Amino acid sequence: MILDSTFEGIEAVFLDLDGTIYLGDGLIEGAKDFLIRLKERSIKRCFLSNNSSKSVSQYVKKLNVLGIDATADEILLSTHDLISHLKDKGYNSLYLLGTEGMREMLIESGLHITSDNPEVVVLGYDTEMTYQKLATTTTLLHSGIPLFASHPDVVCPAPSGDLPDVGAFLALIKIVTGVTPTHICGKPSPSMIGSRMKSLGLQPEQCVMVGDRLYTDMVMARAAGVNSVLVLSGEASRLDVDALPAHEVPSLIVDSVADLL
C-alpha cells in the first residue's frame, strides 16, 4: 500500500507528542482539527512520547488542558518500555536520575528506588537534575553498576530552542566515567508499539507512526514495519530529509499534522 495524506486503509495512528502535537505549552496549529478528523474517520489513536519527565496522569492533564480529550489508556511512554525491560531482566532496585513523575510510575510498578546498593542506575529525562544526582551516579557507575536509559533523544524541542535531553546526559556521563548504557529503552525500539498493535489485532500495514524525529520516530516505524509520516514541525528539517539514503525516506513528509486527512 502506498500511503498518502488521506490515510486510506489505516486503522490506527501512533502519534508523537513533542514537536508533533504540541511544542512547549502550545498546540501546533491544526493539531486539534487533525485529531477531530481522526475521530470522524474512526481511526484509533495512541500518543507516544520518549519524554520520561512526566507520568501518564501528567500527560493526560496536559493534553486535557490543551483541549484534547485524551485518556490514560491512550498514552504510551518510554517509561512503560523501561519498566517492562527492567522486570524482564529481574531487576528490583535502582538509582534514578529522573523527575518525581517518573519516580511515581516506577514505584507504582513495584520497583524500589534507592542510592544504597542499587542493582542498576536508570537515567530518564531529568528536568530536576542536580549536581548531587550526577555525583552519586558517577560513583555508582565507577563501582561497576550497569546503566539503563529511558530513551536516546539528544534534545527536547522547545519554542525558544532545543533543550538537553537524555542523550546529552549520556554523553556527559560517558566523558566522566567511560560508561555507555547496557540498554536504551523507548523509541526507536519497535517494542514501544508492537504490543499495542497486537492488542488491537492490527497488522503493521494498517498502522502509521507520525513524528518529527528521524532517529527515533522514523527508525522505529521501519523496525516495526508500519507506515511512517515525518512532520517538519519539530526537530527534523528538509535538509535532514535530503541527506537520507533512499531506503530511509519516510512514507510521507508533511509540514505538520494539519496537512493530514
Q: If you had to describe this structure to a student in words, what would you say it looks like?
A:
By secondary structure, the chain is an alpha/beta fold. The chain folds into 2 domains: 111 residues, Rossmann fold (3-Layer(aba) Sandwich), CATH 3.40.50.1000; 106 residues, Rossmann fold. Helix content is 34%, strand content 20%. A hairpin with a 2-residue loop joins strand 2 and strand 3. The relative contact order is 0.18.
Short description:
This protein has helices at residues 31-40, 56-65, 78-88, 100-108, 131-142, 166-177, 191-200, 214-224, 238-242, and strands spanning 12-16, 22-23, 26-27, 44-49, 75-77, 93-97, 112-113, 120-123, 147-149, 155-156, 163-164, 183-184, 207-211, 227-231, 252-254. It has 261 residues and is of the alpha/beta class.
| Rg (CA only) | 18 Å
Provide the β-strand percentage band: 15-25%
Average of per-residue pLDDT values:
94
The secondary structure category is alpha/beta
CATH class of the largest domain: Alpha Beta
Low-confidence stretches: none
Number of helices: 9
Could you give the order of the helices and strands?
EEEHEHEHEHEEHEEEHEHEHEHE
The count of strands amounts to 15
- What is the second-level CATH architecture of the largest domain? 3-Layer(aba) Sandwich
Fraction of helical residues: 25-40%
Quaternary form: single chain
Distance between the termini: 16 Å
Strand order of the largest sheet: 5-4-1-13-14-15
Shape: globular
